[in-house]
Write a structure and sequence with these properties.
The chain is mainly beta. Helices cover about 15% and strands about 50% of the residues.
Length: about 160
């Protein structure tokens, strides 16, 4: 008798649970997404315009495009206290946002002796994250998430 009652209770619970899950909402109340406005290709700056060298007083960046469409960016800091840093990163260029997001940055710290000769080269990290934003004025804004800084460089 106890088995029969527990089976009936289980069956009733299953029916209630499954009937609640199977209700389909009214399609007329669904949110309707409107298509976005098409991007006018004439207003876009060609991605090759962003290839080149960018500088400010502390950094020099070189932007290149590989045959496979991946952009590679090399950034070097100015030498300070017999040290400087180099970052190498890559990502795909977005022609709609003029941006390269990256998650593969390698930061290398280079130490020099008093004569300027390189004495040590050490990777500080790999898989650094951040963003390279190009502006319509020809600037490059580097937002380095891992080192928590942002700087702007001018195209040369």
């Amino acid at each position: 008798m106890k088995k029969a009652i527990s089976l009936l209770i289980c069956a009733a619970l299953c029916v209630c649970i499954f009937s609640g899950c199977s209700k389909i909402g009214d399609a007329s109340k669904d949110v309707k997404l409107k298509p976005t406005e098409p991007v006018n290709a004439e207003d876009l700056i060609p991605e090759n315009e962003f290839i080149g060298t960018y500088k400010n007083k502390d950094y020099t960046a070189t932007v290149e495009k590989n045959e496979d469409g991946v952009f590679t960016v090399s950034i070097k800091s100015a030498v300070k206290d017999n040290k400087n840093a180099e970052w190498t990163l890559s990502g795909y260029f977005s022609s709609e946002t003029y941006r390269i997001n990256y998650t593969d940055a390698v930061k290398t710290v280079i130490t020099y002796d008093r004569n300027g000769k390189e004495t040590e080269r050490k990777n500080e990290y790999e898989n650094g994250m951040g963003r390279i934003q190009f502006t319509s004025d020809g600037d490059l804004i580097w937002n380095n998430s891992l080192d928590s800084f942002k700087t702007q460089l001018k195209k040369q």
